[in-house]
Amino acid sequence: MKKVIRGAAIICLLLPLTACRFRYMNPEDVSGFLENLSGIVGSFQITSDHDLIGERGCGEDAYTGRYWAECEGNTGKDVIFGGASLEGRKLYVSGYVNARSGKAVIRIRMNGDVTELEPDEDGYFSTELKLDSGGNYIMVRYENYIGTVELTSKVKAP
C-alpha cells in the first residue's frame, strides 16, 4: 500500500510541473512522456531484488527475463515481471514447478483479471499472453513451499 501511495504522490507532484510543457510537445513526445510516467508508477508493484524469495535476471524490459527459486518452506509472493504501460505486448511465459511439498502458484494479473497457470504432471507450464495497456504482472505465490520454481518470460515473435 505504501508503494501505491508513494507512486500517486510522485504523479501528483510531476504533473503540475510538466502540464504547461504539453502545449508545446508533439503527440509522439506526449505519448512517450506518459508511457515513461506509467512505467514508473507500475514499477512500484514489482518485488525488489532484495526482497525476492528467488532470483531474477531481467531481459530487455520489465516484462521479460528469467526467474529461479529454490525454496525450503517459504510463504509469500514474488511479483517478478510486469508493470503499467500504455502499449500492449505479446509474451511467451514458460517454466517448471518442482514441488516436494507445499504449494507454488504462477499467477498472471492482466489489469483486473487474474489467471493461475496449471503445470502438467511433469511440472511444466507455458502460455502465450496478449497484454493490453494497463497493469500487467507475472507473479509466484508460495505457501509453505519446498521445491524449485523456474520461469522465463520473453517477447513472443510475430
Describe the structure.
- The chain has 158 residues and is an alpha+beta fold.
- It has 2 helices and 6 strands; from the N terminus they run ααββββββ.
- 24% of the residues lie in helices and 52% in strands.
- Strands 1, 2, 3, 4, 5 and 6 form a 6-stranded antiparallel β-sheet that branches.
- α1 packs antiparallel against α2 (27-43).
- The longest helix has 21 residues, at 2-22.
- The radius of gyration is 17 Å and the shape is globular.
- It starts with a helix and ends with a strand.
- The mean pLDDT is 83.
Based on the model shown, name its key terms.
single chain; 158 residues; globular; Jelly Rolls; alpha+beta; 6-stranded antiparallel β-sheet; 2 domains; 6 strands
By DSSP (H or I, 4+ residues per run), the number of helices equals 2
User: What is the total number of structural domains?
Assistant: 2
Q: Which stretches are poorly predicted, pLDDT < 50 over at least 5 residues?
A: none
Radius of gyration: 17 Å
Strand content: over 45%
Largest sheet: 6 strands, antiparallel
What's the CATH class of the largest domain, please?
Mainly Beta
Helix and strand sequence: HHEEEEEE
State the separation between the terminal residues, measured CA to CA.
Answer: 37 Å
* Known CATH architecture of the largest domain: Sandwich
Give the helix proportion (percent range). 10-25%
Name the shape in a single word. globular
